[in-house]
Amino acid sequence: MTVSSSPANLLTSVAFLNRFREATHAAYEAQQDSRVLWRLAELDRALGNLPVAAAEYQQYAVLHPEEKKAQVLGALMAGTAAGLVEDADGVIPFVLVKDLAPEIILKEIRRTLERKREQFAVAKIGHRELERVDLDTRAAVFFRGDEELHGMTQGLLRETIRAQGVLERLGLESISETREEVEAIAYASGGKYAVHRDNAPKVDNGRVLTVVWFIHDEPKGFSGGDLLLHDEPPAGQGFTRIVPVRNSAVFFPSNCLHEVTPVESTVSDVLCSRMVLNGWFLKP
Ligand SMILES: O=C(O)CCC(=O)C(=O)O
Ligand SMILES: [Fe+2]
Predict the structure, then answer these.
(1) Is the torsion defined by CA of 55, 60, 65, 69 positive or negative?
(2) Which atom of ligand 1 is nearest the CA belonging to 258?
(3) What is the ipTM of this complex?
(4) Residue limits of the Fe2OG dioxygenase domain (predicted)?
(5) 125, 208, 227, 230: which to mutate for ligand 1, most atoms within 8 A of CB?
């Protein structure tokens, strides 16, 4: 894992973005200017209003059929993009899956993690000998998956990757059929993970495909903790916000920039706050 500096002027606050969106929406109503429509779509993507953003990009694509990026983003936000990732111009492709596991299995996973509560440790950053705790960058506790957790998750995740055509939709070639990593990560109040990549060309750890599977309780005992997928610089400073929804999962290429925004939690037990299963599928 490498931590890179945050892209400049990154405004990720939901309150700020909402105000900006309101003003932009009013401007669009008044002028019907397609450049304003584009900005509106970008704001809805940054706010995590993905179906709304999809409709706006699609509307823009009708007005500007020559701009491939609008079509691709419309499809990507709507969850229908296929074979078009090279036209995304820096926007990170992702596949969002709802209701990944039957509820009974999710409950079983949570019970299993509860039993392993004592094995959660403070999460680190950095690779191998450079591994260290740095709470300004990453504040979370994690459980490194054992055979039991692998057994409960591997089949479901691999079946989802196959059934949803995840590799094709992300423009990835192939993954090892046997090897993957899986961890459970929990974030108390103040928990976060600054902008980073799960794999970078310089220190290749073999990770190709990342999955973040949200396994917190509903109703949510926390706010924040959104997963932001940052556009690859220099194309833009935009990002796609994925708001945690229990039992949904997001797949994305491991070399992409992403972060977890600060969590505000109302529950004192960290395992009842924002919890995810984080998986990495390795190259063959
Ligand atoms: O908790 C998440 O949503 C993602 C965590 C993450 O990015 C990581 O552990 O590499
Ligand atoms: Fe990550």
Answers:
(1) negative
(2) 7
(3) 0.99
(4) 178-283
(5) 227
Buried b (16+ CB within 10 A) or exposed e, 178-210: eebbbbbbbbbbebbbbbbbbbbeeeebebbbb
Residue nearest to atom 9 of ligand 1 (CA): 278
Burial (0-12, 13-18, 19+ Cβ within 10 Å), 100: buried
Q: Is 90 helix (H, G, I), strand (E, B) or coil?
A: coil
Ligand 1 within 6 A of CB of 229 = no
Q: Which atom of ligand 1 is nearest to the CA of 214?
A: 3
Distance CA 72, CA 67 (A): 9
- CA dist., res. 18 & res. 44, Å (int): 9
Query: Which pair of structure tokens corresponds to residue 192?
Result: 């976060």
165-195 pLDDT, tens digit each = 999 999 999 999 999 999 999 999 999 999 9
Q: Which of 211, 255, 226 is nearest to 92 (CA)?
A: 255
> What is the distance between the alpha carbons of residues 193 and 262, in angstroms, rounded to a whole number?
8
Q: What is the mean pLDDT of residues 259-263?
A: 96
Find the 89 Cα to ligand 1 centroid distance in Å.
24
